[in-house]
Amino acid sequence: MLVGVNLLREGLDLPEVSLVTILDADKEGFLRSETSLIQTIGRAARNVHGQVVLYADQMTGSIIRAMRETNRRRKLQLAYNKTHGITPRTIKKAIKDITEGIVRRKEEEVAKKALELETAIVKGGSIEELIRDKEKQMKEAAGLLQFELAAVLRDEIKVLRKKQK
Hints:
By secondary structure, the protein is mainly α. The protein folds into 2 domains: 7-84, Rossmann fold (3-Layer(aba) Sandwich), CATH 3.40.50; 95-164, no CATH class. The chain has 6 helices and 2 strands, in the order αβαβαααα. The chain has helices at residues 7-10, 34-42, 61-84, 95-122, 127-143, 147-164; strands at 19-22, 51-54. The chain has a two-stranded parallel sheet.
C-alpha cells in the first residue's frame, strides 16, 4: 500500500502501513525534529511487521535521540508483552472507518472556518473582499505546493459564495 499523506500532521490512524520512509531525515527542521521523528516512526508500530527507513547522509542529534527513544520504548513494550503473555497483532480496521474519520474532521474544520468568516463579515469586511483575499491565499498556497491548505481555502471560498447568494 502506498500512502501519500503527511502522517505526522494529519495524525491518521493507518494500521495497514507497514513501511514508513522519511526522506532527507538529516535536514533539521520542524518535521525532522526529535519529537516529529518519534511520532512519525511510531506510525509503523501499528503494524506487527512495521519498519521505518530514514534516508540521511549523516546522523543528526535528532535522529540519534529518536532512535534511542524508540529502542527504549520497544524494550519496555517487549518486556510488558512477555510479562503479560501478549502476542502483538496488527489491528484490523475497515477503510470506511478511516475515511469517515477524515471526512468528519474535514467537515468540522470547514464549519469552524465558516464561523470565523461570518465573524469577520460582521466586523465590517465584505464577502467580496474575503473571497478575493481567500482566492489570493489559495493561489499562493498552490504555488508553494501546499495543496492541503489550498483545498481548505477553496472550501472556505465555496462557503462564502453560498453566503453571498
